[in-house]
Amino acid sequence: MSYDVTFQRCGISALFDLKGAVDAVEAWVGDALPDFPDRPNYRTGKDGKELFFIGRDHWLARAPLEQEVALEARLKPTDCPVDISIVRVSDTTTFFRVTGPDAGEILAIACPLDLHDSMFDAEAVTYTEVFGLKALVMRCKDGIEFGVEQSFADMIEEYLSRATA
Question: H/E element holding 28?
């Protein structure tokens, strides 16, 4: 069966892992990031940057890779107070986009989570599995975007090729 879908390997983004009490992290990062999401497993965005609420006192900040140096200079991970943690993790995750009318069909093959827009809305973001690997999943225009540990990117690209054939 053929699917009306395309996939794109988006590569690596600037990613920063942030941990600590929300008030302390917000005070440290100031306006360098979007507003902190008020609900777990949701994201906010501003000026090309996104902030994902992925766990209790735990967020991921994402930006285009070309903004990594400037964002690191603003977040100052090596100088942050001892009650918070900021770690650049950009080289750990490769992102993919699956778009088109049948994107949901492909993700139903790859992922056990119900990603229908009635259950997983436009601002939702969560960790689940894609082809059996831990993946950060979110919506994108006309489909789903997900990130996997970068060493598995070639394998995921091959699985997507087979699933969409």
Answer: helix 22-29
CA separation for the pair 101, 127 (Å, rounded): 23
75 shares its domain with 38: yes
Q: What share of the chain is helix, strand, coil (3-state, %, to 5)?
A: 30, 40, 30
Query: For residues 137 and 156, what is the distance between their CA atoms, to the nearest angstrom?
Result: 14
- Same domain, yes or no: 18 and 66: yes
Q: In the block, which residue shows the tokens 């990613």?
A: 15
For residue range 96-128, list pLDDT tens digits in order.
999 999 999 999 999 999 998 889 999 999 999
* Bridge partners, residue 15, by sequence: 62
Residue at a domain's end among 90, 110, 140: 90
Q: Are residues 51 and 68 in the same domain?
A: yes
Nearest Cα to 127, choosing from 113, 142, 140, 116? 113
Query: Beta strand 125-130 with 93-99: parallel, antiparallel or unpaired?
Result: unpaired
CB 37 within 8 A of CB 51: yes
Give the domain range for residue 157.
6-10+92-164
